[in-house]
UniProtKB/TrEMBL annotation:
It comes from the Eukaryota. Pfam families: Caleosin (PF05042). This is EF-hand domain-containing protein. The chain crosses the membrane at residues 87-107, 186-203. Keywords: Membrane, Transmembrane, Transmembrane helix. Belongs to the caleosin family. PANTHER family: BINDING PROTEIN CALEOSIN, PUTATIVE (AFU_ORTHOLOGUE AFUA_5G13750)-RELATED, PEROXYGENASE 3-RELATED. GO terms for molecular function: calcium ion binding; monooxygenase activity. It comes from Lipomyces starkeyi NRRL Y-11557.
Amino acid sequence: MASVETSAEKSAVTFSRPVAVGADKSIRSAGVARSNIASSTEHPQGTKTWASQHKDYTVLQQHILFWDRDQDGQIYPVDIYRGFCDLGFNIIFSILAAVIISIGFSYPTRLAHSYFPDPFFRIYVDSIHKAKHGSDSGVIDSEGRFVPQNFENLFTKYAKEDKSRSSLTLSELFLLVHGQRSVLDPFGWFASILEFFTTWLLIQKDRKIQKEDLRKVYDGSLFCDIRAKRSNGTGWDKGFKFSRNGMWAIKSD
């Protein structure tokens, strides 16, 4: 079989941002979007227990289930606030996250139910795909499914410092946001910067985010892991404590 050309001589960017080749060796039909499994070459079956328990939800829906505290399919601003507190963010960051996310994503998901804005700024789990914005990573498709090939591409294209292509630095994350942006899409640019910077704050280790941790962010399983490790028999009220590391920092236990 003839090899597939992934770079063009007259396009320098196709050389500086190579695509992942060989993902199909570990993941069957890696380019086909998975409805409920976040697959990677290291974990072709995704997060097995989590995926099995939430097989009736798309990966994008799984990503936000952590904030649906009473599992009624509706996420209120206070749910977002409490969720960020559970993850260890301080009160100011958690309030800002609740405000920005509710304002930005409530109405798009509301459109599946009504043309009138939701007076409580709820986000609806069943129609979260309507809130998918532009200039994102491309890992989640327009229906909320996970595309393994695109996930692998992120690390092949942008992980330059780590020779194993299994981690991303903060500067590489900003290169990712820059590389994925669409023209005339300021909302998408802002949303992507906010999402990836928050992700870096949450899961960075030695100033890098690991591939497996990022995969588990996409399917939402990592959020529950973090809450379980942090709980120690208390609850979301831990979020009322300010971090000594600064306004935006994650609280230390």
